[in-house]
Amino acid sequence: MDNEGLIKAAEKAMENSYSPYSNFKVGAAVLTGKGGIYTGCNIENASYGATNCAERTAVFKAVSEGEREFLKIAVVSSAGDLTFPCGICRQVLVEFMPEGSIILKDKNGAVKEYTVKSLLPNSFAL
Question: 117: part of which helix (H) or strand (E)?
Answer without folding.
Answer: helix 116-119
